[in-house]
Amino acid sequence: MAQKNPSTGLVMIKGGSFVPLYGPDAKPVKVQSFQLDAYPVTNAQFEAFVQAYPKWRKATVKKIFADQNYLKHWATPLGVGPDAAKIKNSPVTNVSWFAAKAYCECQGKRLPTSNEWEFAALASETKPDATNDEKFYQRSLEWYSKPNPKYLPPVKESFRNYYGAYGMIGLVWEWTQDYNSALLVGEGRSNASLDKQEFCGSGASGATNVKNYVAFMRYAFRSSLKANYTVANLGFRCASSMPVASR
Amino acid sequence: MKTSTKTKAVQFLGIAIYCLGLLFSCTDVKKEREIASAAIAAGSKVLPQIEAELTNAPNVPRPIARKYPAKVVVRLEVTEVVQKLADGVEYTFWTFGGSVPGKFIRIREGDEVEFHLMNHPDSKNPHNIDLHAVSGPGGGAASTFTAPGHETIFDFKALNPGLYVYHCATAPVGMHIANGMYGLILVEPKEGLPAVDKEYYVMQGDFYTKGDFGAPGLQPFDMTKALKEEPTYVVFNGSVGALTGEKALTAQTGETVRLFVGNGGPNLISSFHVIGEIFDKVYQEGGSKVNENVQTTLVPAGGAAITEFKADVPGNYVLVDHSIFRAFNKGALGMLKVQGKEDKKVYSGQIMDKIYLPEGATVQEMPDSKAPLAPVAATKDGRIALGKAVFTQNCQACHQAEGQGIKGAFPPIAKSDYLNADVNRAIGVVAHGLEGQIKVNGELYNSTMPKLTLTDEQIANVLTFVYNQWGNKGVEVTTEQVKKVRATPPSH
């Protein structure tokens, strides 16, 4: 059941299986129980990280690890600057996959896999699996179609799902460990030839659940990324495999 | 090869010399001159490079004057913006260049295009572009998948002339298009399009909002309506009223007008029509075939058409999707205002507005145009018959159908002692009216009998009728009697 571990800020996601959105003959994917950060990593948390690990500071990060927009919303090399009051508890964005991965590893955690992330994101407030809840989709849809706010809201103010994870829907996009393994290419309609798993334009009809049309956008978004990219509405959170003892 | 190079060089030189003769302040001409000079300097292997001029609807870039191919750099920025969909209604549009439809791109057949797609850092979503003018995977979409805050570049050669739609093809494709991610790219044929006086860019699209048509506020996209293909709005150029009022297209009489018409869809095909104009020419589906004298042209979703006509007479010409409920109930209305001299031969304007009579529009008269004479009774029975009609029309309401009257209000004229006692008095009552108290069959009545506007003949007839009904004394009243009584002032 949904349990929050207050010391680490992790919530437990009880394993199970789900059918990813792509492909007409997609098989259910098994997801082991795991723990996931209740909140996306905040600017304040990331500030603490770059202070501790100088190689991830704005000025010193290696170009192959992050593009030139890395932490561009921060006014100072070490922190947010004048906007701190407004966004210190908001999700950190403009971070590359390398930086996100390093952050999680330094916390003794890792980035969630796309399957883990998607599995956890299937939950509405009351149900672990809101696959058939159209209201839930509509909420997603409305967020996807709204422009980014000037200042992202604090992580604790966003939607809390069944597991106690906040902001899975409606806050920011999030990096996953295998973000680029989604079966989507730039030309997202070419599922007729090479890889039938590729979806998108035809995916609406080829998908396992047509109603959850909007979830394609997450796969599409991840597919548009490279590991050194930084994006103004892309953040991350960390995960942890279940400790052996509790399995 | 060599001779053609020489020919080109001579052409460039010619242009350069021509341009030198013109004002240097004219940047366009200057630019052309520089391009031509650069081309000469570099030889024909390197195409002159031009930054494409992009325009917002309803404007289009100037026709291409170049007679040679160029390397055209197109930079198109994707932004996600909240804009007006209708009065009081806002919508989050995803745009190529800041508004719907996207910027108009104009290139020449044979041009090599270096295409830059920039996705604004504030965008929430990744986007790409599929240009129907591109021969290659995804029309460029395969090479332009662009995360927010990034820019992608690819090259293509414009092999086919025509008017082409471009649109976003990122998952979910339908939603990206439904949010307004489309526009037009014109590949002018090598020989150019015939010169016209006015060129405009009109693009239809269907929109799906949670609220009903006109429901105010920032309206979210409605996926269910989109899947059912039941749009809330069907509009030209991105919003209700984008082409009306002050924003109407304009032309002068005698000018030729070319409309580059696109349809972004995502779902509906358009029955494009300009009320009051006939398209002299339609480049069907935006291709090379020209149809002539067309009233309504079909523009498929993801398709286009070029229509041309001469504005013959002044007035307001309404652009519609002639699938007409969309026009008058969902927003697909635009306007072209034509000003200038009337040509009464082509169109007279309203000559007259008058009463319509089903037998014919004019006032009709019989050859002998006198009003028919009232019938004159030749006999006592004839008088009774005509008098019945007068009674029904004038007397029956008060004195009742059987002459019984209404007790206390209107005296009886059946078996009436008052009536039967004095014929001349009875005539006088009808001719002059009667006011004051009278006693009829033992009952007092005190009410007013108005003076009736009846002819002598009518009075004679109606009284004869009354005297020969309901037990009255059966006399005939003549017009001579009535005439005499009428000439006598009432005695009471």
Automatic annotation (TrEMBL), chain B:
The lineage of its organism: Bacteria, Pseudomonadati, Bacteroidota, Cytophagia, Cytophagales. Homotrimer. PROSITE patterns: CYTC, PROKAR_LIPOPROTEIN. InterPro entries: Cu-oxidase-like_N, Cupredoxin, Cyt_c-like_dom, Cyt_c-like_dom_sf, Cytochrome_c-type_DH, NO2-reductase_Cu. It comes from the Bacteria. This is Copper-containing nitrite reductase. Cu cation binds at H127, H132, H167, C168, H176, M181, H322. It is an enzyme of class 1 (oxidoreductase). GO terms for molecular function: copper ion binding; electron transfer activity; heme binding; nitrite reductase (NO-forming) activity. PANTHER family: ALCOHOL DEHYDROGENASE CYTOCHROME C SUBUNIT (PTHR35008:SF8), BLL4482 PROTEIN-RELATED (PTHR35008). Its EC number is 1.7.2.1.
